[in-house]
Structure formats: C-alpha cells, structure tokens
Amino acid sequence: MTYLAAMFAAAHVKELRKAAGFSARTFGSAVGASDRMVRRYEAGEIDPPLSTAGQMARTLGVPLDSLYVHATDADTPAAAGEESPTDHEPGAASDSSGARLAHQGG
Would 94 be classed as within a structural domain? Predict the structure, then answer.
C-alpha cells in the first residue's frame, strides 16, 4: 500500500482517550499538552506535532500509525476516474467543487 497523505484522526484519538479512561486534562498531562490543546487536537482544529502524537500513541498503547487516516493512491481523483485540479489546462481556475470557472476578462 502506498500512502500519499496522512491526516490526524482527531475523533479516533478522542475515542481512544475516553476508552482508556483519560480526561482531557489527565491525558494532556501525560502527553505534555494542556487540556485545551488536547481538545483542539481532538476537534481537528490543529494537528499535534509529531513528537506529541508519538507521546499520545505511547500513552494509549497503540502504534503511532493508528492515530492517522491514510489516503492511498486508490483514494485519489485520478484513480477514481475523476478530473483533478492539476488535469485542467494551465491557468484555468476552478471552485472548491472542482468545477471550472469562466475567465472574466476586463
């Protein structure tokens, strides 16, 4: 399996923390972060530094890799037969859905 990207699995970490019986405060103390930062990590607002994620994994007794969601080449637009933004001609703009936007001359 080839990983193209990895995203912190915020909700999964929260589930693991609660299942292990940690409050945000006690978990934060164990991993060297404030309870506020733990809540921000778990809400997906920010990703923890790799060192903190490693400490989270050790504290929870899970592999570091399990704290991340991986996109594989099967998850890419090209593998699904979809057009990716890089498939557009140079300089072509598209909106967030990938739809091409018409050039407005002026």
Answer: no
Is the confidence at residue 73, as pLDDT, over 70? no
pTM (2 d.p.): 0.64
| Alpha-carbon gap, residue 16 to 38, rounded angstroms | 13
User: Which CATH number is 14's domain given?
Assistant: 1.10.260.40
Q: In which domain, by residue range, is 8 found?
A: 3-83
pLDDT of residue 83: 52
DSSP states along the chain: --EEEEEE-HHHHHHHHHHTT--HHHHHHHHT--HHHHHHHHHTSSPPPHHHHHHHHHHHTS-GGGGEEEEEGGGSTTTTTPPPGGGSPTT--B-TTSPBPPP---
